[in-house]
Amino acid sequence: MSTTVIFGASGQLGQCLQHVAQERGLTGIVFLPEEQADILDVAGLQAVFAEHKPAYCINCAAYTAVDKAEDEVDLARRVNRDGAENLARLCAQHGTTLLHVSTDFVFAGTGNEPLTETDPAEPISVYGLTKLEGEQAIAAHTQQFFILRTSWLYSEYANNFVKTMLRLGRERDELRVIWDQAGTPTYAIDLAGCLLTIIEQQNQQYGIYHYSNEGLTSWYDFAVAIFELGKVDVRTVPIRTAEYPTKATRPAYSVMDKSSVKKALNISIPHWRESLQTCMGRL
């Protein structure tokens, strides 16, 4: 397999990529945590590209603190837009294919039909806006790219909704969880598998794709499923978004259509409940 360099390798998705790469026996992958390779350090990035001459680059580095981004606009923009642009420029110079992870937050989420890649992106938060700007920067500087928009990411690694719910469910008698936001949980192991499949196939159907698990749910129903599978006995109360105000506005409906990625890669995608069960078995 050609050399692949992964930036942001110490985060949730980076750890999942390591897990899947080991499972598949893949070689030639260089995992670079932020301490070793900062996507804002152009000179450092140039050194990485010069040393490894990667055929592929996966960007897992991102600013993902959705509410903090409302106050830290410049930092979110530097990481999500400028960092993505730095990688895109270098990938173009070196003939490297860039695989980049984006988000359902690029959409306003005001509709009720699964979102396609050609639906208008109208972010309603700083996080969503800076991720969209990152997509646009990539498209402006290289043609050899895959952007995978994903949603509600969780795994056995790092901090995420599943692990938080399990912890809180064991600590408390009652939890109030939002029921009027609809989307699809995504097991980061499955997303990692999709990214590595693109590389294994040496796929050249470049562009923007949507990838999440199949099905749809609310945060409340997701939490209930977590408690059922984890055998956690906690009273779970559905509440509306208005009852749990946050600094950043979230899309009310961000279910994505995965037809394009399934066709391009000839893959099937597990239902979110099936993948949740797999994850829970590993916790």
UniProtKB/TrEMBL annotation:
Its EC number is 1.1.1.133. Pfam families: RmlD_sub_bind (PF04321). GO terms for molecular function: dTDP-4-dehydrorhamnose reductase activity. It catalyses: dTDP-beta-L-rhamnose + NADP(+) = dTDP-4-dehydro-beta-L-rhamnose + NADPH + H(+). It comes from the Bacteria. Pathway: Carbohydrate biosynthesis; dTDP-L-rhamnose biosynthesis. Residues 4-281 form the RmlD-like substrate binding domain. Keywords: NADP, Oxidoreductase. Catalyzes the reduction of dTDP-6-deoxy-L-lyxo-4-hexulose to yield dTDP-L-rhamnose. PANTHER family: DTDP-4-DEHYDRORHAMNOSE REDUCTASE, METHIONINE ADENOSYLTRANSFERASE 2 SUBUNIT BETA. Belongs to the dTDP-4-dehydrorhamnose reductase family. This is dTDP-4-dehydrorhamnose reductase. The gene is rfbD.
